C-alpha cells in the first residue's frame, strides 16, 4: 500500500465517522422538532439513536452549540408562539407544546422572548389588526 493510499484510508475513516455523527445529531434534532410536545429526556433520545446519552450530549453541543434540552425548550417556545398568534389560550398553549407547569412555561417564555405569553399574544393580535386595517385602507 502506498503512502497516498494510506492517507486516503486515514482521511476516509475520519470523514465517515463524522458523517455518522452528523446523521445522529440530525436524527435527534428532527425527532425533537417533530415530537416536542412529548415528554422527552436524554435517556429516550439516546435510545432512539443507540448511543450513550453522554456521547449524544457532547455531539449535539458540538454541532449545534446547545444541548438537546435547550433545543427542546426553544422548539416548544417557537410552537407556543404559533399557538398564541392563532388565538389559543396561554394555559392550552402551555400543555399543547409539552410543558407540565404553567409557571415554568411563563417563566421560560418571558426569558426567551422578553414578554409574558399573554403580553406576546396581545401584541401579536394588535399587530394583526393594524395590518388588516392598513391593507383595507390600501384596497380602498
Structural class: mainly alpha
Radius of gyration: 22 Å
What's the CATH architecture of the largest domain? Orthogonal Bundle
Shape: elongated
Q: How are helices and strands ordered from N to C?
A: HHHHHHH
Describe the structure.
The chain has 140 residues and is an all-alpha fold. It is 80% helix and 0% strand. α1 (3-34) packs across α3. The model has no long low-confidence stretch (mean pLDDT 84).
Keywords:
140 residues, 2 domains, mainly alpha
In short:
The chain has 140 residues and is mainly alpha-helical. It has 2 domains: 1-65; 69-140, Homeodomain-like (Arc Repressor Mutant, subunit A, Orthogonal Bundle). 80% of the residues lie in helices and 0% in strands.
Write the layout of secondary structure elements.
Elements lengths: L2 H32 L7 H8 L3 H12 L3 H18 L4 H7 L5 H12 L3 H23 L1
Helix pairs in contact: 1-2, 1-3, 1-4
Amino acid at each position: 500500500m502506498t503512502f497516498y493510499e494510506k492517507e486516503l484510508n486515514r482521511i476516509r475513516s475520519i470523514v465517515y465517522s463524522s458523517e455518522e455523527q452528523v446523521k445522529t445529531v440530525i436524527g435527534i434534532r428532527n425527532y425533537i422538532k417533530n415530537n416536542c410536545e412529548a415528554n422527552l429526556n436524554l435517556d429516550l433520545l439516546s435510545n432512539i439513536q443507540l448511543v450513550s446519552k453522554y456521547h449524544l450530549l457532547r455531539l449535539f453541543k458540538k454541532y449545534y452549540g446547545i444541548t438537546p434540552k435547550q433545543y427542546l425548550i426553544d422548539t416548544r417556545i417557537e410552537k407556543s408562539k404559533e399557538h398564541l398568534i392563532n388565538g389559543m389560550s396561554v394555559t392550552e398553549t402551555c400543555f399543547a407544546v409539552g410543558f407540565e407547569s404553567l409557571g415554568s412555561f411563563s417563566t421560560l417564555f418571558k426569558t426567551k422572548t422578553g414578554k409574558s405569553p399573554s403580553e406576546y399574544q396581545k401584541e401579536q393580535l394588535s399587530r394583526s389588526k393594524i395590518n388588516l386595517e392598513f391593507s383595507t385602507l390600501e384596497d380602498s
